[in-house]
Structure formats: C-alpha cells, structure tokens
Amino acid sequence: MDYQNRAGSKFGGGGVASHSATSADRRERLRKLALETIDLDKDPYFFRNHLGSFECRLCLTVHQNDGSYLAHTQGKKHQTNLARRAAREQKEGKGEIDPNTGLPVGVMGAGFAALGLGAPRRNLVKIGRPGYKITKVRDPITKQQGLLFQLQYPELGAGVTPKWQVMSAFTQRVEEPDRNFQYLLVAAEPYETCAFKIPARELDKREDRQFSFWSPDSKDYWIQIMFMTEREERFNAAPGLTGRR
After folding, report:
1. β strands within 101-153, DSSP E
2. In a domain, 118, yes or no
3. In this predicted structure, what is the pLDDT of residue 221?
4. How far is CA 178 from CA 51, 167, 173, 198, in A?
5. Mean pLDDT by 10 residues, the chain (245 residues)
6. Which domain holds residue 158?
7. Residue 149's pLDDT is what?
8. Where are the alpha helices (DSSP H) in the chain?
C-alpha cells in the first residue's frame, strides 16, 4: 500500500500505516491466499444461511461475505480447531471429511441414515429419475389435507427397497432456504434421489395417516403424508398441552 501522503511521512518514503489500514491490508492478503488454496464448494464447514451470511460450522462464527470467511479460515482460531478435529479423528480412527454430509467418512448422521446417504459413497452409475405421480388427498371426516406419491422403479434390483424422509429447507444446499417449505426425499439406488418441495406444515405421523408401501411385483412405491389441521397445529403449540402423535 502507498502511505507516502500520510501525515509525518516523507515523499516516496512509504510512511507509517494506521492500525486499521494494516488490518485491512492483512485481511485482503489472507483472502487472496485463501482463494488460491480453498474451494468453498468443497469446504465441509462452509454454510450460507437464509439471511445471506456465511457461517463456519467448525468454529460457529458468522461472516458477512466470503472474503471475511476466507480470512477467518487462515486465522489462528480456525487453524487450531482444524488441528484439534484432525487429532480427535485420528484418535478415533476416522479419516477425511465427506463433503456431502460434513461428517467424517463412514459416519452416518441422523438426517442421512434413513436414506443411506451417510454411508461411504459407492461408484454407481445413475440410470435416471423414476416416474412419479402426485395426488392431493383429503380426509372427509377430519378435513385433513395430504399428498399421495406414487413412484415407479421398473429397473430396481431384487432385495432393494426405496427409502424416504422429510428434510428441512435449511439442511439442503441446492437452493436458497425458504422457511415456508420442506423437502420429501426418496432414494433407491441406482436411481437418482428425488426431492419434492412441500409446505412446511406439521405432519400427522399416526400409522393410519402416514405410511409407505413398496410393491416388488409392480415396482411401485407409495407414500402418503397428511398435514395437521390449523386447529391441531395451534393446539400442539400451546404451552403445557401435549399434541397427538
């Protein structure tokens, strides 16, 4: 940086930089250094929240832009936490981090275990997406609204059963999180995993309301979910009251 016009400096001599200018120059140098060594798309600790800010899942810090996050990754706190994480994983016999889950390879997180996405990835050739049909349903007595999903897996091998789960909008990394929606995921290898965007309403998880059925003969997979009524949602949210499950 050119400090020759600062008070007390000689022309052409550079001068004395202020503390804020030195800090800004240091952050910029760290950002450029990080850009050469870090790919944010592959950083398991990098997360962009619904407010547009950037979070470090390792250090639990929030940053207003990617430059601030990159400078943070080169700082003492982040490097120290990385060393502690690596030492703990080596002690526990765990290896590298899976970029798809943000967890050590071989560790199954609660959100991925149901779909088998937390297990070590296998080199399978995807054969495309299954055919599907979505039907709106409504209980004539309780007036509950719901959705019935029918997916077709004609090439699915014997002994393989599709799995499904509901994921929060803030868990996925495909698009900007929207608190008004959640995602219903269906997985069955070697088909691609399907995600259906549904309203972020509380689900009625009773067996006669929510169920799934796999027909190995017709290769059809059925999923039914029912949303609780507005009255039931208010009842469950009332303090001191226990909603039905």
Report:
1. 103-104, 131-138, 145-152
2. no
3. 92
4. 10, 12, 12, 11
5. 55 61 76 68 80 84 82 83 81 57 42 41 67 90 89 86 87 78 88 87 84 89 88 60 48
6. 131-237
7. 93
8. 19-37, 66-73, 76-92, 110-113, 230-237
- Count of domains observed in the chain: 2
Q: Would you say the C-alpha torsion 152, 155, 157, 162 has a positive or negative sign?
A: negative
Predicted pLDDT of residue 105: 46
81 and 5, same structural domain? yes
Cis peptide before 162 (omega within 30 of 0): no
Q: Rounded to the nearest 5°, which phi and psi values hold at 101?
A: -115, -20
Euclidean distance between CA atoms 223 and 202, whole angstroms: 16
Q: What is the pLDDT of residue 9?
A: 56
> Residue written as tokens 């970029």?
99
For the record, the structure tokens of 14 come out as: 């550079």
Residue type, 21: A
d(CA 224, CA 150): 9
156 & 98 share domain: no
Looking up tokens 């930089």 gives 17
Question: Which residue in the block uniquely carries the two structure tokens 């760290």?
Answer: 30
Sheet of 194-199, strand order: 163-168, 181-187, 194-199
Q: CA 131, 136, 139, 144 torsion: positive or negative?
A: positive
